[in-house]
């Protein structure tokens, strides 16, 4: 479960997240949607405990900066930052040691195979393409068997096979009760599997919808998205 309450993040005087509050339940996939610059990455970095902010964020009932929260939180950044001199497999070993994981090898093998990195296991981070580096981030985030995972624009830069595998993985995680947040500027990339949609504009959540309600009402989400994100243009 993720509970975000009155999250405000300023970069000097610029307000990137403006009093955002929302909750994502266990086994739910929430999508943070909005145009570039809406504040999605900033919100995800705050939830991941990487930035200072005002407000409160809880991960399964623990303050997001606590050890308890960090142990169950996976984060896949928008821009991958692997260790240049560690191989793919050494990344797995590093995470396993840092999180004191037991019996992790088989899971690591499975993740690496699934992301089609098995023939690159001995390649160093710096020798890999951006897409492959992103796949390492995904493997690292999932190796710890997180209860909450944050994906920042995960489909950008991945090849079609990896996108298919990632989508299948997301569904499996949801079935296991894992809580997921995905940010995207393209609504259609997530339309098959979202449960909760948060449309952001200028640091604020301008609309929140649950899938079940939208299925009943038949509301057109694309229209809603553009109504919110193109409001200024219409007013000009
Ligand atoms: P999104 O992920 O929706 O594209 P971001 O969270 O990356 O949006 O950025 C939101 C706003 O905050 C943008 O206007 C961006 O320029 C600004 N911003 C992001 N990071 C920084 C930073 N480190 N310093 C100053 N401004 C930033």
What would you note in describing this structure?
The chain has about 240 residues and is α/β, with parallel strands linked by helices. The chain folds into two domains: about 160 residues, P-loop containing nucleotide triphosphate hydrolases (Rossmann fold); about 60 residues. Helices cover about 35% and strands about 25% of the residues. It contains nine helices and ten strands. The strands form two sheets. It has a six-stranded mixed β-sheet, with helices on both faces. A four-stranded antiparallel β-sheet has the order 2-1-4-5, covered by helices on one side. Strand 1 and strand 2 form a beta hairpin. The model has no long low-confidence stretch (mean pLDDT about 95). It binds adenosine-5'-diphosphate. Adenosine-5'-diphosphate binds next to strand 2 and helix 1.
Question: In short, what is this structure?
Answer:
This protein has 236 residues and is of the alpha/beta class. Helix content is 36%, strand content 26%. The protein contains nine helices and ten strands.
Please give the alpha-carbon distance between the first and last residues.
41 Å
Mean pLDDT: 95
CATH superfamily of the largest domain: P-loop containing nucleotide triphosphate hydrolases
**Low-confidence blocks of residues:** none
- Elements, N to C (H/E): EEEHEEHEHHHEHEEEHHH
Radius of gyration: 18 Å
Indicate the proportion of strand residues: 25-35%
Strand order of the largest sheet: 6-7-8-3-9-10
CATH architecture name of the largest domain: 3-Layer(aba) Sandwich
Helical coverage, percent range: 25-40%
Assign the structural class, choosing from mainly alpha, mainly beta, alpha/beta, alpha+beta, or little secondary structure. alpha/beta
Query: What small molecules does this complex bind?
Result: adenosine-5'-diphosphate
CATH T-level fold name of the largest domain? Rossmann fold
Count the helices. How many? 9
Counted beta strands: 10
Q: What's the level 1 CATH class of the largest domain?
A: Alpha Beta
Shape: globular
Largest sheet: 6 strands, mixed
Number of domains: 2
């Amino acid at each position: 479960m993720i509970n975000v309450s009155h999250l405000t993040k300023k970069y000097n005087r610029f307000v990137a997240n403006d009093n955002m509050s929302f909750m994502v339940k266990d086994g739910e996939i929430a999508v943070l949607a909005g145009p570039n610059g809406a504040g999605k990455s900033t919100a995800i970095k705050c939830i991941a405990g990487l930035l200072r902010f005002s407000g409160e964020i809880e991960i399964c009932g623990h303050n997001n900066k606590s050890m308890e929260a960090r142990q169950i939180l996976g984060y896949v950044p928008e821009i991958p930052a692997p260790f240049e001199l560690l191989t793919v497999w050494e990344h797995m070993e590093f995470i396993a040691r840092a999180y004191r994981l037991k019996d992790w090898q088989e899971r690591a093998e499975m993740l690496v195979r699934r992301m089609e990195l098995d023939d690159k296991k001995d390649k160093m981070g710096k020798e890999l393409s951006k897409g492959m580096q992103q796949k390492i981030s995904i493997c690292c985030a999932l190796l710890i068997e997180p209860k909450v995972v944050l994906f920042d624009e995960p489909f950008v830069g991945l090849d079609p096979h990896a996108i298919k595998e990632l989508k299948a993985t997301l569904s499996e995680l949801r079935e296991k009760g894992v809580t997921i947040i995905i940010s995207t500027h393209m609504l259609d990339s997530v339309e098959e599997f979202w449960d909760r949609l948060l449309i952001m504009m200028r640091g604020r959540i301008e609309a929140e919808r649950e899938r079940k309600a939208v299925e009943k009402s038949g509301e057109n989400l694309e229209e809603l998205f553009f109504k919110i994100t193109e409001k200024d243009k219409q007013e000009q």
